[in-house]
Structures are given as C-alpha cells and as structure tokens.
Amino acid sequence: MISNRALHQWISEMEQLCRPDQIVWIDGSEEQKKELEREAIATGEMIGMDQKKWPDCIYHRTAVNDVARTEQLTYICTSKKEDAGPTNNWMEPAEGYRRAGEYFRGAMEGRTMYVIPFSMGPPGSPFSKIGIELTDSIYVVLNMLIMTHSGRKILEQLGDSDDFTRGLHSKADLDPERRLILHFPEDNTIWSVGSGYGGNVLLGKKCLSLRLASWFGRNEGWLAEHMLIMGIEDPEGRVDYIAAAFPSACGKTNLAMLVPPEHFRKQGYKVWTVGDDIAWIRAGEDGRLWAINPETGFFGVVPGTNSRSNPNALASIRRNTIFTNVLLTGNGDIWWEDGEGDPPATGIAWDGRPWKPGLTDEAGKPIPGAHPNSRFTVPVVQCPTISAEWDNPRGVPLSAIVLGGRRSRLAPLVYETFSWRHGVYTGATMASEITAAQYGKQGKVRRDPMAMLPFCGYNMADYFDHWLEFGKDLENPPKVFHVNWFKKDHAGHYIWPGFGDNLRVLNWIVKRTREEAGTVRTPIGFVPAKGEIDLNGLEISAEQIAELFAVDPGDWQKELDDHRRFFEQFGERLPRGIAEEHRAMQERLALERAGSR
Ligand code: GTP
Ligand code: SPV
Ligand code: MN
C-alpha cells in the first residue's frame, strides 16, 4: 500500500512475533467500517442493536475482569528507573519486551492483524503526532476510527518518515495474569497485551496522548495534560477558553458539555465544547497559552447521563455510537442507571448475566445493570455544542487553567491561586476520591497531581519542574483556579447542585481573569467575596454557601502535613519551587491560626 520502509520492516517483525493469519490495512472508508461491524457481529465480538431506535449504534461487552484501566499492570520502561519516578511502575526495556513478547508470541494465530494509521491532532498541525496501532480487535479499530484522525490520509501525511509511535496491541487470551500495558518512551513504542478495555487498548488515547506525549512535551517544551477544553461565550460574544484537569470520572465530559442555567441562557451565555479528556498546550508567540484537543471523539462515562445532567451528551449518542458495558435488553435496546426512563422489566447486565430491577447482592446493595464505568464512544462533531474551533490546527487561547477533584470535605467550591507557582503547587497536591474508572477502594482519597498520577510518562518530580519552568517563560501566564463540585453536608448530600450550575463558578473565574470580580484572601488562595458568584435562580441557603466556602485552618494543616508525606517519595528531585510554596503555605496557615486563636 505504501513505500515507508521503516513501517514495513516494523510491521513484518510484529507479524513474525504475533503470527496473524492475515493483515488488513484500515483505510478510513465508510465501506470498510461497515464491513468490520458486520464481521464483528457475525463472530459475536460485538452485538447489533435496534437500528430503528439506535441508528448505526453497536454494542460491546468486555470481559468481566477487564472493565477499567489496570494501573497496577501499566509500566514506564526507561533505561534508568529514576526517569520513571516513584509514582510509576517501572520495568527495564529489555525485560518489558521479553515479558510482553512471551504473551504476544503467536497470540494472533487464527486472527487478523489490523493496521491503523492515526494522527493525534489535526494532520499537519505543529501539535500533531502520528502513530500506527497494530491490533487483533475490531472493537479497537472501530473505536480508533471515532477517536482519532485515521486511515489512508494519515499514511500519506507520514510519507517515508520513521517518526511515528509504534503501537502493538493484542487481546491475547484476556487473562489478567498475562496482561501488560508497557510504554517505551525512548523508542516511541507502546505494547499492550491481554486487555480489551478502552484506556488500555486505544493506544492513541492515554498511552500516546498522555504518557508518551508528556515525555515528548518535556523534551520539546510543551504540556500534555488530562484536561477538558471549553469556550465560555458571554452576552457580548467574547469567548474565553479554559482548560480543566479533573481525575477520571470527576466531571470533565459533563463540564465540557455544560448547559447554562436559565438565568444565564436568557442573558446570552453559551458554552462551546472543544475537548473532554486531553489537552496539548503550547506557548504561542503572543505570550498566551494555546491548546488543542488531540482526539476526534468522546469516550465518556454512560451512567448518570440524562436529559437533566448532560443533555448534550445524550443528544450526541443517539446515533453512530459504540456502547460498552451498559445493560442490554432482549430486543437490542439499552439502559443505564440514572439515564432516561424506567429500567426494563428484564435485561442482560454488563457482565452478561440476567438482570431485573431490584436485584441485590449478599450485602443487600443494588446490583447495577450497567457497569459504573460503562462508556460511549462518539464523534465529537455529533455534540450540539461542538466549538467551531475544535480542530483548528493552531488550537484555542487559554484564559484560565482550572484544577479539581472529588472531595467530600475540605476543598471549597472554588479558589484562585496566588501565582503560577502557587498554581503548580496546588496541582501537585491535588487529591480525589477513587472512582469506578480506577481499580482500588472506591471513595478513598488519593493524591493525583494534575489528574496525571496514572498518566505522567516520567518522573513526577521532573514533571512539576517542567510546569514551573514552562510558566517562567510565559509573558502572560493564565491564572490557575481550583474547584470542587463534590463537597458533602453532614447527611452525605452534595451541597452544590453542580452540572449546569457550575457555569456560575466558571463565570466568576472568567471575571477574575479580567480582574472584574471581588475576592477574599484566605491562606489557600482567594475565594469569591460575598455576592460575587451569581446565584440568581438557585435555591441555596446562606449556611450552605458558608459551608461551601469554609477554609478551616486546622483541617488544612492536616492536609499540608499529608502534602509533605506525599512529597517525601521524590527526595532530592523535588523542585525547590515546590518546597518553597509548601513553606509559604505553612506560614500563611500559622498566621491564620495565631490570628483566630
Ligand atoms: P473520564 O472520562 O474517566 O476521564 O471522566 P470525566 O472526568 O469526563 O467524568 P464525567 O464527566 O464522565 O463524570 C463522571 C461522573 O461524575 C458522572 O457520574 C457524573 O454524573 C458525575 N458528575 C459530573 N459533574 C458533576 C457535578 O458537577 N456534580 C456532581 N455531583 N456530579 C457530577
Ligand atoms: C479515564 O479513565 O480517565 C478515561 C477513560 O478517560 S480511559 O480511556 O479508559 O482511560
Ligand atoms: Mn480521562
């Protein structure tokens, strides 16, 4: 099909290792896609859906032990262990190739190897990176066709260059004991074996666009981040773009597709979606930050998606969508928890077992029909609020960076950091409660710097340093904010309504970037002055507002002690700027506590 020698040589080596029956090149055509869907349905790899109700949609169920990324089986394979750092699993490259090579050996016998040429970022943009994924999964091919620029046009773009990410994936036998997700940043290579789940196998996504890209970004002077990108248009038609880092399943897709509350809609506020998961950020010649969404699709959490929480997502996924691990009914319909309408009388749960409403486990807990991490895959252009700038090769200029997590306690609804350096400190100490998108004890608070704990492809201490240095070179570094939509009252209920009402907070943030809104100084940053967040049309009491913005110096002292313990693992490598910010915060808290005594 093409003359690229480096590409052909690599493919033939991988072919010898995996021994597929045949090789098929993905050209990006609609005919090939339809043919693959038919084949996947015929073999049972995927399941057809009611085409009247769900036009061009298709269903997939993963293995029951394969429903989220497996961070414990994900490795950074660098020559030096320190380059991966204390927060990553590390394996020596030779050991990685040897161990995974054993699982790959002959794994594609009786199967087809698909060759997927893809580009993260618009082809030809200075931001963009080309990859080739080899896979034995039609599910992966169909997802990559939605999530990336892919097919013949990318091969043409690549030409004879050997500058492409070499991605090898095989489901092999889907055995978690023989599963590895390996990254070789020094070789621009990714090997993933033994899984069929999204973030483990769509190699353009977390593996390339975050783990490898963060490594490239450090060497080349840019940032690859786990961030949504959205535009907020005010009644005068000015659009401010913000990028926001929240950990997995903490609200990026929802915020990126936000519908303004009525009070704002009437005034003419609009929200535009640019991306919901990943941002690549560069400094522009104008001294501002510019960001692109390298993806072309959304791989979003299904449960909780309904016409109140996220009508734009719901509108996006009515056609031409892949559904993974939701509840399937006998007649090709689907259902999920906190979606639209009543559950069906009976169905087949995400794990393939018969399901009916009211089922409980031994502990009396409801058994869900859809897995809490069930996902939709849909082209971004199907979103009613997709920004006209979404695939602009130059990206969009950022007015603010927003950080956040899921904290039932402690973190106030919103605060503004004092400086870029304090913003980096705030990102470095981000924490969130574990969700269904990760394996681990759900609800437990873990530190997740910049929402990148599972995605930073190098030593996290060097990552902090890269952020600090990156900001020093900026003429106009954007302000950095922290938000928390998830604070709970003593009865365990969310205090803040969230979703569309989050625009009230974003509006304050945008005003702050123009120095147009008042603040109150606290030891952790500036919180909105009374009356500065527009609460018009919202039923919320003064006590609730007070609780949302409370900054308790005693609780924050405990938090700060935990920051210190977290930083200890980086030893000497922790940048001085971070240690200095820690000390400064210690002093502000001590002053506050002395003052309030
Ligand atoms: P990944 O795709 O895993 O990176 O997740 P994400 O960050 O895009 O999270 P998503 O928007 O899919 O939200 C995950 C869960 O958080 C869903 O169950 C949402 O209903 C819930 N959620 C999102 N925004 C809010 C909010 O403002 N308030 C509350 N209470 N819940 C929210
Ligand atoms: C996440 O877990 O942050 C996701 C889903 O966006 S996955 O692509 O599986 O990583
Ligand atoms: Mn994500």
Write a brief caption for the model:
By secondary structure, the chain is α/β, with parallel strands linked by helices.
Rg is 24 Å
CATH architecture of the largest domain: Alpha-Beta Complex
Biggest sheet, open or closed, and with what strands and sense?
A: 9 strands, mixed
Q: How many separate domains make up the residues? A: 2
> Alpha-carbon distance between the termini?
76 Å
Poorly predicted spans: none
Q: What is the CATH level 1 assignment of the largest domain?
A: Alpha Beta
β-strand percent reads: 15-25%
Description:
This protein has 597 residues and is an alpha/beta fold. The protein folds into two domains: 193 residues, 3-Layer(aba) Sandwich (Phosphoenolpyruvate Carboxykinase, domain 1), CATH 3.40.449.10; 280 residues, Phosphoenolpyruvate Carboxykinase, domain 3 (Alpha-Beta Complex). 30% of the residues lie in helices and 22% in strands. It contains 17 helices and 31 strands. The strands form seven sheets. Strands 1, 4, 5, 6, 7, 8, 9, 10 and 11 form a nine-stranded mixed beta sheet that branches. Strands 12, 13, 14, 15, 16, 17, 25, 26 and 29 form a nine-stranded mixed beta sheet that branches. It is globular and about 75 Å long. The model has no long low-confidence stretch (mean pLDDT 96). The structure holds guanosine-5'-triphosphate, sulfopyruvate and manganese (II) ion. The site of guanosine-5'-triphosphate has 21 residues, from helix 9 and strand 18.
